[in-house]
């Protein structure tokens, strides 16, 4: 079980099949400006790749009690709840032997998603 800031570490957690909670907070102004230009449903790479909320995300709303409650739930139920979804993410990435290959796959996937949204 991990609690991680949104970024490549969440993808590493997925590859390691670790149930993860994603948190991220930036200034309110930056968040509002970003929301005007970035039109994606999720902030974490595993959720973007899966196209659904595999890892719970707490973006801007960093409530320690809610995060702790979710963490306890995931410690007791996390592997069973997300195992199939994580396997799908790994399958979409392919079986890579190096981080460079994984990085290239993620960049390619995100470029395709960006093109589809444009």
Provide the fold topology:
Blueprint: E1 2-5, H1 8-15, E2 20-24, H2 28-37, H3 45-50, E3 57-59, H4 64-93, H5 99-117
Parallel strand pairs: 1-2, 2-3
Task: Give a structural overview.
Strand 1 (2-5), helix 1 and strand 2 (20-24) form a beta-alpha-beta unit. The protein has a three-stranded parallel β-sheet. The protein is flat and about 40 Å long. It has one domain (2-117). By secondary structure, the protein is mainly alpha-helical. The mean pLDDT is 85. It has helices at residues 8-15, 28-37, 45-50, 64-93, 99-117, and strands at 2-5, 20-24, 57-59.
Number of extended strands: 3
Percent of residues in beta strands?
A: 5-15%
Largest pleated sheet:
3 strands, parallel
Poorly predicted runs: none
Q: Let me know the average pLDDT.
A: 85
Helical fraction equals 55-70%
Give the end-to-end Cα distance, rounded to a whole number of Å: 36 Å
Count of all domains: 1
- From the alpha carbons, calculate the radius of gyration and give it in angstroms: 15 Å
Strand order of the largest sheet: 1-2-3
Number of helices: 5
- Topology as a string of helices (H) and strands (E): EHEHHEHH
Short synopsis of the structure:
With 118 residues, this protein is mainly α.
Please tag this protein with its features.
single chain, 118 residues, mainly alpha, 3-stranded parallel beta sheet, 5 helices, 3 strands, 10% strand, flat
């Amino acid at each position: 079980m991990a609690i991680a800031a949104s970024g490549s570490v969440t993808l590493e957690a997925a590859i390691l099949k670790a149930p993860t909670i994603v948190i991220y907070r930036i200034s309110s102004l930056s968040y509002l400006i970003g929301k005007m230009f970035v039109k994606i449903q999720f902030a974490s790479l595993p959720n973007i790749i899966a196209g659904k909320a595999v890892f719970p995300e707490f973006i801007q709303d960093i409530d320690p009690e809610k995060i702790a409650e979710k963490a306890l739930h995931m410690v007791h139920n996390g592997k069973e709840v997300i195992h199939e979804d994580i396997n799908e993410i790994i399958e979409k990435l392919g079986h890579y032997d190096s981080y460079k290959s994984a990085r290239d796959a993620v960049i390619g996937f995100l470029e395709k998603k960006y093109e589809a949204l444009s």
